Amino acid sequence: MNELYRPVGAFYKEDTCHFVVWAPKKESVELVVTHPYQKIYPLQKDDAGYWQATVENVTPGLRYLYRIDGEMQRPDPASLSQPEGVHKASEVIDHNFSWTDDSWKGIPLEDLIIYELHTGTFTQNHNFEGIINKMDYLVELGINAIEIMPIAQFPGSRNWGYDGVYPYAVQNSYGGVNGLKRLVNAAHTKGIAIILDVVYNHLGPEGGYQSDYAPYYTQRHKTPWGNALNFDDAYSDGVRNYFLQNALMWLDKFHIDALRMDAVHAIVDYGAKHFVQLLKEEVAKLEKKTGRKKFLIAELDLNNPRYINPQSKSGYGLDSQWIDEFHHAIHAVLTGETDGYYEDFGSLQQVEKAFTDTYVYDGIYSPHRKKIFGAPVGNNDYGKFVVFSQNHDHIGNRALGDRLTQTLSFEALKLAAALVIFSPYIPLLFMGEEYGEKNPFFYFTSHSDPDLVNAVTEGRKKEFSYFSFKYDFPGPQEEDTYRQSVLSWNINGNEHAAMFRFYKAIIQLRKTLIALQNKERDSMKVYPVNDNKVLTIERKNGEESAFIIFNFNEEKKDYTLPAETSCNKIFDSSAAQWNGPGEVTPLTINV
Amino acid sequence: MNELYRPVGAFYKEDTCHFVVWAPKKESVELVVTHPYQKIYPLQKDDAGYWQATVENVTPGLRYLYRIDGEMQRPDPASLSQPEGVHKASEVIDHNFSWTDDSWKGIPLEDLIIYELHTGTFTQNHNFEGIINKMDYLVELGINAIEIMPIAQFPGSRNWGYDGVYPYAVQNSYGGVNGLKRLVNAAHTKGIAIILDVVYNHLGPEGGYQSDYAPYYTQRHKTPWGNALNFDDAYSDGVRNYFLQNALMWLDKFHIDALRMDAVHAIVDYGAKHFVQLLKEEVAKLEKKTGRKKFLIAELDLNNPRYINPQSKSGYGLDSQWIDEFHHAIHAVLTGETDGYYEDFGSLQQVEKAFTDTYVYDGIYSPHRKKIFGAPVGNNDYGKFVVFSQNHDHIGNRALGDRLTQTLSFEALKLAAALVIFSPYIPLLFMGEEYGEKNPFFYFTSHSDPDLVNAVTEGRKKEFSYFSFKYDFPGPQEEDTYRQSVLSWNINGNEHAAMFRFYKAIIQLRKTLIALQNKERDSMKVYPVNDNKVLTIERKNGEESAFIIFNFNEEKKDYTLPAETSCNKIFDSSAAQWNGPGEVTPLTINV
Question: Which domains does chain A have, with CATH numbers?
Answer without folding.
Answer: 9-91 (2.60.40.10), 109-504 (3.20.20.80), 520-590 (2.60.40)
